[in-house]
Amino acid sequence: AQKVTQAQTEISVVEKEDVTLDCVYETRDTTYYLFWYKQPPSGELVFLIRRNSFDEQNEISGRYSWNFQKSTSSFNFTITASQVVDSAVYFCALSEGNTGTASKLTFGTGTRLQVTL
Amino acid sequence: NAGVTQTPKFQVLKTGQSMTLQCAQDMNHEYMSWYRQDPGMGLRLIHYSVGAGITDQGEVPNGYNVSRSTTEDFPLRLLSAAPSQTSVYFCASSLDRRTKKLFFGSGTQLSVL
């Protein structure tokens, strides 16, 4: 069975601080995909990144960066110089590699990030 | 393109009532799914479909029915609403087997009294 653990329920930081959101996953599949989604206060879910299990390169997109480490089954997300607009709930998710299950994601319970001035 | 459209946005039901949550996508996506979001539990998969005429159960299917008669539509039916089904429901679709990127609707907030 697949499982995604986001141990940090809520994080509060002051604007311009760096913050890392942790994600640990469990799967028996050798091929799988990892995702991060953002849910701002308006409620919609916004795709941030997708990573497959064969690509361990870290990725940077503006102030966002992701650190994928298969050795520790982690896919952590760092926001550099946080801004108030980053306040949201962030979900980590896992999908098995089977091509017939493209809509089956296992989500973590989410981390609520509060960025204040 | 409208993307993934869910209706209604809000709904209040009485225990035992039935209703259908509508979901439509105009992106010609093959894969569609329904999730429910509950506090402290993240999103959990209810049902999913890999194409028209094909559906399967997810993690929490009890009390819900789905059908996929067209590529565009994937309605979720509550057969006899219960207070435990009070939740926010999200419909999602994805383009193909390779990308696995989900596009979500804006959600339906359902309260069952």
Account of the protein in words:
The complex is a heterodimer of chains A (117) and B (113). Chain A has strands spanning 3-5, 10-14, 19-21, 24-26, 32-39, 46-52, 59-61, 64-69, 74-79, 88-96, 106-107, 111-116. With 117 residues, chain A is mostly beta strands. In chain A, the strands form three sheets. In chain A, strands 2, 5, 6, 10, 11 and 12 form a six-stranded mixed β-sheet that branches. A four-stranded antiparallel β-sheet of chain A has the order 3-9-8-7, with no helix packed on it. Chain A has a two-stranded antiparallel ribbon with strand order 1-4. In chain A, strand 8 (64-69) and strand 9 form a beta hairpin. Chain B contains no helices and eleven strands. In chain B, the strands form two sheets. In chain B, strands 2, 4, 5, 6, 9, 10 and 11 form a seven-stranded mixed β-sheet that branches. In chain B, a hairpin with a 7-residue loop joins strand 9 and strand 10 (102-104). The radius of gyration of chain B is 13 Å and the shape is globular. The model of chain B has no long low-confidence stretch (mean pLDDT 92). Chain A binds chain B through residues 4, 6, 9, 33, 35, 37, 43-45, 47, 50, 91, 93, 95, 99-110, and chain B through 30-33, 35, 40-45, 48-50, 58, 88, 90, 92-94, 96-104, 106-107.
